[in-house]
Amino acid sequence: MKSFKNIHAGALVKLRFLESEMEISRVSNFFNCSEEEIEKMFESKSLDTEILLKWSKLLEYDFFRIYSQHLILFSPPSNAYSSNKEKKSNMPQFRKNIYTKEVIDFVTELITSGEKNINQVVEKYGIPKTTLHRWIVKYRNHGKRIHKEYQPTNV
Fold this sequence. Notes:
Elements lengths: L8 H12 L3 H8 L3 H9 L5 H11 L4 H11 L26 H12 L5 H8 L3 H13 L14
Helix pairs in contact: 1-3, 6-8
GO molecular function: sequence-specific DNA binding
Protein name: Transposase
């Protein structure tokens, strides 16, 4: 998956299903539906959360993480002075800035390809410059070519 911006759940489920080499009859039995209904799920841009949870279990892949990565990359940064910080919530609380390998790969690819510079990435995704520099140094040390204009100095 190249971009986390436009998510097509059905296409991603189909891709994982094909990779698993699972028989469609097994999937039909698991969901208690016809093969035609399974094909409709593959064509669907979004899937009900209960259905997506079943797919995640059956195919042993966390499809919800794709949406989490979308939120990390494309939701507006939280305001430290927001009045919402004062309100208590009974909802589970998660740290927003947990970067998975997929997010790191996506962002470093934007920089290494020259598609975006570090300042553009900082502005668009709110990732600190120091974090980006650490990622770039790590990838440079692992043989990944970094666009010369964006090589950090004195990191």
